[in-house]
Amino acid sequence: MKKTGLLLWLALSAAAAAQDVAPATGADHAPEGTLPTTVSFPTERVQTPTYADLYCAGFLNKQLLPNSRFVAGGLQTPTTTKFVNGNMIYLAGGGYQTGQEYMIVREMTDVNEYQVFRGQFAMMHEAGQLYSELARVRIVDTREKMAIAQIEFSCDPVNPGDFAVPFVVKDQIPFHPQIHFDRFLPRNNQLMGRILLAKDYDSELGTGFKVYLNIGSNQGVKIGDYFRAVRSYTADLRDPVDSLSFKASTSEDTQKEPPTIEPNFFNMTRGPMIHVADLPRRAVGEIVIIGTTPTTSTGMIVFSLEDVHLGDAVELDQQ
């Protein structure tokens, strides 16, 4: 019994020792000029996109999709106006064949009409129309004037008036092993873009959220590419809420000559001047590309250290 207990103690000690050295091993590859810390090089545990993530993300499209095929109703029309998994729906338009699969999409509009960051509306106009992906359906009957389809997978309820477009199989995203995330990586002259919008018009984003970028396959973006979301402190200066903190006092009563933060020139002292533009750029999260068009792409946030915002820059991450 004593021998068994000794062996168990040795096994647990070895496991604990392995855990102690594992993080340091990964951090040994920190770039020259840095010290590996858990704050500057946290371990990145990436969330792999699921089937629902891939097929329910939505997309921005430069050109309007044809609307000749659309949902006209369902088995319980007009008492039922929203249709989900297993429901039968009726599709107007022509060219349907039994066994064909279609994706039901919706041309979206933002009823709030609120510009989250300066220039967002102009960039959205340039990027195109937002479409929500609602459901995958299969044609089961074409004998009537309208085709009959069954919903085989639904992301959100389907409504009359939603469009039907041919279903396209999407590439699966391979598993991403754990790596160390370089939070303060300087700009590396890789492809850059910007987060224009998010699914459901969310503005404060975290892991699992879907975002739409203003770069696409024309710029070389591919499904499976990883981009880091980055933010400078000058971006906070342009935010109507975050900028208020720069106007508040940062000094302590015992400081003889407190510093002046660049925007607060009316509070200038003989103390040091803090230039906001010189503060290090910080990475706030990681995004994997799950869909592309020639000029835009859809991404999923798979790792975040803090809230990701609309308007944040993204940079191709070649780790």
Task: Fill in the keyword field for this structure.
319 residues; alpha+beta; 7-stranded antiparallel beta sheet; 6-stranded antiparallel β-barrel; elongated; disordered N terminus
Task: Explain how this protein is built.
The model is unreliable at 1-27 (pLDDT under 50). Among the domains are: 53-166, no CATH class; 237-278, no CATH class. The protein has 319 residues and is α+β, with helices and mostly antiparallel strands. It starts with a helix and ends with a strand. The longest helix is centred in the N-terminal third of the chain and has 26 residues, at 2-27. It is elongated, with a radius of gyration of 26 Å. The protein has helices at residues 2-27, 51-55, 120-127, 233-238, 243-247; strands at residues 43-44, 59-61, 70-74, 88-92, 101-107, 129-141, 147-154, 163-166, 179-180, 192-198, 204-205, 210-213, 226-231, 260-261, 273-274, 282-292, 297-304, 308-309, 313-316.
List segments where confidence is low: pLDDT < 50 over at least 5 consecutive residues.
1-27
Q: Which word captures the global form? A: elongated
How many individual helices? 5
Helix-and-strand structural type = alpha+beta
Order of helices and strands: HEHEEEEHEEEEEEEEHHEEEEEE
First-last Cα distance? 49 Å
Average pLDDT rating: 86
Gyration radius over CA? 26 Å
What is the helix content?
10-25%
Number of strands: 19
**What fraction of the residues are assigned to beta strands by DSSP?**
25-35%
The biggest sheet amounts to: 7 strands, antiparallel
Short description:
By secondary structure, the protein is an alpha+beta fold. Helices cover 16% and strands 30% of the residues. The strands form 5 sheets. Strands 2, 3, 4, 5, 6, 7 and 8 form a 7-stranded antiparallel beta sheet that branches. Strands 10-12-17-16-13-19 form a 6-stranded antiparallel beta barrel. It has a two-stranded antiparallel sheet with strand order 1-9.
